């Protein structure tokens, strides 16, 4: 299948390189308003046609799909045009600048029977793919809590706060690995802007999950130490993903708390501990974006939604919008809008 | 000065041993309703008079002070009796089972001119004493955020949730090291009871501080990995206290974000980074409880409030009570009651 | 069975406490020339008869065994007397101050049919017991190399160098866990005395093992960082024991190098890598010295040598003496004396 | 100045890229017998003339210097030709396949007044440059010991053992940072070939330094854990360089042992400990090879030897040759040949 990259900025070269390197795809064009940038990207992958007018791409019958890496505010327009032109679409996160636009894009893709995939790259890393499998096969049991920490000395963004900048990664991963996806009904958000930067530089999200479980996300632009860690506690085992420890990225602890079924009042007596082994699976060395390209092609060929389809992008957007409302209300829980297309279409 | 220990349970032996080992104190009695327990404690410190009736202790004119290590629900009654008998009091945390009782105890001590000290032992560790000094001398600059994590595989307590069980440590430390003490006006609390234990086993507190800063506390009874870490980010430097890393307990990072004073809109441009050295001060080996005994004696002698006086115990209680209300409201911010005696008496 | 502790110095209290706490033993006496020291030890375990004349202990028919914790130079005399009096003996490491004395002690015990056990306490830690089992059951395959590191800021001893002070631990452990015990024929030792302390403060031992394998030991009194780590590389798996990491003391890496059987010259082509999982077994919490007491009793009852018998103490001594000769020869390999009694008696 | 790269294999692209990126150099040619390989390298840096005949390079008057990245056995011939053609030379490590060839190359460069620089890249990393400065300014005091560990799961090389493969890095660094360079008179080497690979896969070097100090190097191809760590103990402070810990690559411990001057026999009493702070300097982010190119140009311009000149390459070769002799003698110390040119010319 033929594909074009639209947008030759920060992420475009990675998309072009992985399309070029994929057995599923032929890179047909690199498109950017700035011909020089597009040319640089095309040359960096050994040469490819350069286009400055996106209409040219959309009109090309040999191009089956486009990979869009332009600013978020342009996603709605570009994705709509591409879908109307009959192209399958892979789009960078966030799916759109606001939820309403995202809903329209998802609905359009469904109407046209085209694949709309959100590039939640992290979900295709060997670590996250393995976490998803481990949870799906019951290795962790029922999920009790998730704690995700993503902190670093990071640029204070001019247009978005730290929740919109960093938490999409955590939310997309949660949506990918949790059995029912990211199904929280409300979110409580806290944040701080201690530098007077005009937006939160430190943020926390609490997402009550089903059956009393909870997911918590901590993001921070002001931390001199860099942490990217997710802990997923289950009734059977607990998993720790430490993305900055290449020697032991995943650890599965066969330790936990057992609660007896007896309904008596003395809860301490009902609880016992299990101190078992720790296990750290070997992970293959794979570039996540190569897996993205394979999944994109596979979804198109089999006419199924991609693993990280437009709906998943929409669920992330819905949480972010609710988090902003909760942040404004100092942590009061805000309801998360339900992904309408999913309810109506029932297709996801 | 003469002192008696009241309560020969879990903590009593430590109090007795440190009173015995202190140059400031003479251990005059170990008191417990259970004579056998009291005897065991007395023998473990090389012998001391054993008493089963607390009135005997309170009537003894050679006893200047009592150290109370009984269950929280008994604190109000015992402390009140001791203060009325003219004894200075060191009492285990929490100060009382509820805030109203705590207020009454603090007021009574103030009326009688006696020292009422809360045994916030952590505050007297070499690490926390050093943190207090570093902040006081401006080494960190203005505080931007505090992140405290205290997680472990812990017993599900029969009477209190994880916030009341573990967060008092973090709150007492914050009250001790922050320039103005624990002065938050509201708290947002989130928690989860995924085991159906009848109380939160996972909890989070967000405390907005002055000038846009925020303190956050994370506690968890269900974590197979044990973490006791506090990060204090400041405008000049950031401190990390990793209490489980004896080789490098404190690290001070001379790294951070500088925000220019210009009022323009492009905030990213206003921010710059400082990548400096890291420094880890050597800490003396001291038992915290020995420092507690010294402080207790010193406060009595000089007629000043102890560093962790009844008011500090009360501020911790006030946050916990507000946290319980916020937890019930799914994170909606709850106002923290002001410590009345401080406002009226103005003595702290 | 009745037992007495001889020597109430640094280690004596631990022996007394574990004999007292053992179901196999009755603590009959604490013996020291210094009555006050002996009394302190006896009281610390809740009381026991105090004796100052060792002959009194040896003459007591209710005392079946003695645990000796006196300076090394006194071991030969005391152990000989005890064995001649028909007592089983547990003796602190090193077995004796020199190999010849050790040989005589081992031979005497064998003649008398008594148990002579060396207190190689480390061998009875849960970690080392597990390592021994893992190797015995073939989990590591054939041993390829062992790297043991034991470094710290340590006291420069007045009478022994760093090899004699610290390496006995490593050598005793190697003797305990390696399938054929510590069977090296030679040792090469290097060392340095950069402070002019009169003896090596930094030392290295290289011990060629069977089949081309090698054990290496690194000890150092001058290191500001403390490391106690042993790596045991095998054809199937590699084990890392990090004694200072309680959260993950043992790690078994299912990674390694496979060498094909083909005899061609291009060795690089014959070698392939296996990147498998890492596994960290849970270890029980046990005091090693309690296990020592159980083993001592069990060996006596069943009339078998203790796991760490006199021969093992002798093998450690033999390596140390050879190491001193190699050190004097700047690393030239020195032959390790064979344990004569084993060869003659064939009993170990 | 104009430069050509000779050899378009593994390292050639890095040389080409850094010459191209340097303000000091103009990349005039990429030379390889294999035109295709040379072309690939030239294209990867944005285009450069491609040459297959090295004579063409040497005849070009616009080329002042050559950077040679060909197999070690070809160094002697190529470097000799280049020097005879009047070119300055940067050559990959090892300087030559044997010491005699290295001596001839160094002498020739000296005769012709040309710069012969060994590409000991590690020496130009920010960490090693800082270590050199710290030692030079006395921050560590006198050096007591050096422990260097470089272990990994590595390819068993077909032509060299693990000492020749990995230890050159450690030796080059030692030569660079130690005040008098790598001045050991003898070396003791131990090694093992437990896989029957035909050469040592595990190796140890002990190098007695001046004043009783010692350097020790541990290398291993069979380790499932990767360690690259150097500890440099000094009378004032001890430095730990952990190259795999980007968050704290260098740590300087202000802890150590003080030995009093008194000449009495009781050495334990003469020794005291200093427990001070730990300090971790921030290091700039620099590519080491860019620093190499700057140093190469600077040495040529100022007519001085490069920091890692031919003599340093020769000292490394001398140790390796002696180590091979010691290895064959099971650790017996082997004398290290003195670098003749230095003695005669006195220029280094």
Automatic annotation (TrEMBL), chains A, B, C, D:
**What region holds the Gfo/Idh/MocA-like oxidoreductase N-terminal domain?**
3-120
The protein's matches in Pfam families, at most eight in alphabetical order, are given as: GFO_IDH_MocA (PF01408), GFO_IDH_MocA_C3 (PF22725)
GO MF term (any one): nucleotide binding
Q: Which InterPro entries does the UniProt entry name for this protein? A: Gfo/Idh/MocA-like_OxRdtase_N (IPR000683), Gfo/Idh/MocA_Oxidoreductases (IPR051450), GFO_IDH_MocA-like_dom (IPR055170), NAD(P)-bd_dom_sf (IPR036291)
Q: Recite the UniProt keywords alphabetically.
A: NAD
Q: Which Gene3D superfamilies match?
A: Dihydrodipicolinate Reductase, domain 2, NAD(P)-binding Rossmann-like Domain
User: How is this protein named in the record?
Assistant: Gfo/Idh/MocA family oxidoreductase
Q: Per the UniProt entry, what species is this protein from, by scientific name?
A: Microbacterium stercoris
């Amino acid at each position: 299948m033929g594909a074009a990259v639209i947008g030759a900025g920060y992420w475009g070269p990675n998309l072009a390189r992985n399309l070029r390197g994929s057995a599923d795809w032929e890179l047909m064009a690199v498109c950017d308003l700035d011909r020089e940038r597009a040319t640089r990207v095309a040359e960096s992958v050994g040469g490819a046609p350069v286009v400055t007018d996106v209409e040219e791409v959309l009109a090309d019958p040999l191009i089956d799909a486009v990979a869009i890496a332009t600013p978020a505010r342009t996603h709605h327009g570009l994705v709509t045009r591409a879908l109307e032109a009959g192209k399958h679409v892979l789009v960078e996160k966030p799916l759109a600048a606001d939820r309403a636009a995202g809903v329209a894009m998802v609905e359009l893709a469904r109407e046209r029977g085209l694949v709309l995939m959100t590039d939640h790259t992290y979900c295709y890393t060997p670590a996250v793919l393995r976490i998803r499998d481990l949870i799906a096969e019951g290795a962790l049991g029922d999920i009790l809590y998730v704690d995700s920490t993503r902190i670093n000395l990071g640029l204070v963004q001019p247009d978005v706060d730290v929740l919109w900048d960093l938490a999409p990664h955590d939310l997309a991963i949660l949506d990918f690995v949790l059995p029912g996806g990211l199904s929280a009904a409300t979110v409580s958000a806290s944040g701080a802007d201690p530098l007077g930067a005009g937006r939160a530089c430190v943020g926390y999200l609490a997402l009550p999950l089903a059956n009393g479980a909870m997911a918590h996300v901590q993001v921070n632009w002001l931390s001199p130490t860099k942490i990217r860690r997710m802990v997923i506690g289950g009734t059977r085992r607990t998993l720790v993903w430490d993305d900055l420890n290449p020697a032991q990225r995943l650890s599965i602890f066969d330790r936990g708390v057992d609660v007896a079924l007896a309904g008596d009042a003395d809860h301490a007596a009902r609880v016992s501990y299990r101190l078992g082994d720790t296990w750290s699976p070997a992970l293959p060395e794979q570039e996540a974006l190569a897996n993205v390209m394979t999944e994109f092609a596979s979804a198109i060929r089999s006419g199924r939604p991609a693993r990280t389809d437009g709906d998943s992008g929409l669920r992330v957007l819905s949480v972010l919008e609710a988090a902003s409302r909760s942040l404004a209300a100092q942590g009061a829980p805000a309801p998360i809008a339900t992904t309408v297309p999913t309810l109506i279409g029932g297709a996801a």
